[in-house]
Design brief:
Layout lengths: L7 H9 L10 H18 L3 E4 L2 E4 L8 H13 L3 E2 H5 L6 H11 L3 E8 L3 E8 L2 H17 L5 H12 L3 H4 L6 H9 L5 H14 L44 E2 L2
Parallel strand pairs: 5-6
Antiparallel strand pairs: 1-2, 2-3, 4-5
Length: 252
């Protein structure tokens, strides 16, 4: 996958980045949206495909994007198709920060160091080229204003923006109510984007992964606790070293 085109996770994060404060809107749900955006991007690249409400790997060939390839490999290791809501509702250890660092390496944002309460170090991010963010926003505005069905990439971006709650950030107040409604309606224009957007909303509404019973345990009794497995890395996040107690805080 070349760098001539921005990925949907990159565009979603740029949409969420406030140019004034250098923080991201909806930081908690944004991690879920980025996980969903990875699935859409992998589907557009022909690596995965929807199978009902599940996601199946159809080609394990790497895309060339490290963050996407990490997610693709984790999906491949599952063996069987996984429900989108279970995948998106998995561990969210630093996916937003991973993409902020990725955008910084690509030169799309730059980090601004600061302090919270004059003590705790923080990092805010500013777009290096505001024209990129304006172009992304213009695509959404055009789809909302004209009512013309957008391309799958824009439709999926709109679906995810709605799912994570960016509508009130992009189109605030009473004057933005109709635009927020039209943003929600764009979900129907891309099946994969709609699938992951609904999964993101389901996770936020409490659709959690149910623990599985150990099939080897006797009926009527749960198996006793065994050795604790090593934690699985966050979905689509390359393994990162642990940081000390004074690690820099990323401003939301």
């Amino acid at each position: 996958m070349g760098r001539s085109r921005r990925t949907i996770p990159e565009e979603l994060l740029l949409l969420a980045l406030d140019p004034t404060t250098g923080t991201t809107a909806q930081p908690q749900s944004l991690d879920l949206g980025l996980a969903g955006a990875q699935l859409v991007e992998l589907a557009l690249a022909g690596r995965i495909a929807p199978d009902g409400d599940r996601i199946a790997v159809v080609s394990p060939r790497p895309t060339g994007d490290p963050t996407l390839d990490c997610a693709l490999e984790l999906l491949r290791r599952r063996g069987a198709p996984v429900r989108a809501v279970h995948w998106i509702g998995g561990p969210r250890l630093g996916l937003r920060q991973t993409y902020l660092s990725h955008l910084e390496r690509c030169g799309m944002v730059h980090a601004v160091a600061g302090q919270m309460c004059g003590v705790l170090p923080t990092t805010r991010y500013q777009a290096t080229d505001t024209e990129i963010s304006r172009e992304i926003r213009a695509r959404l505005d055009s789809a909302i204003r004209t009512g013309v069905p957008p391309d799958p990439r824009t439709a999926a971006l709109a679906a995810l923006a709605h799912a994570v709650g960016l509508g009130k950030h992009l189109y605030p107040g009473n004057e933005g109510r109709s635009s927020r409604s039209r943003l929600r309606d764009l979900i129907r224009h891309d099946p994969m984007g709609g699938l992951v957007a609904h999964a993101v909303m389901d996770v936020q509404n409490g659709a959690a992964v149910q623990p599985r019973r150990n099939p080897a345990a006797p009926a009527g009794r749960q198996a006793g606790p065994g050795p604790r497995p090593a934690p699985e890395p966050a979905r689509g996040v390359p393994a990162q070293p642990r940081r000390g107690p004074m690690a820099r805080v990323v401003a939301h």
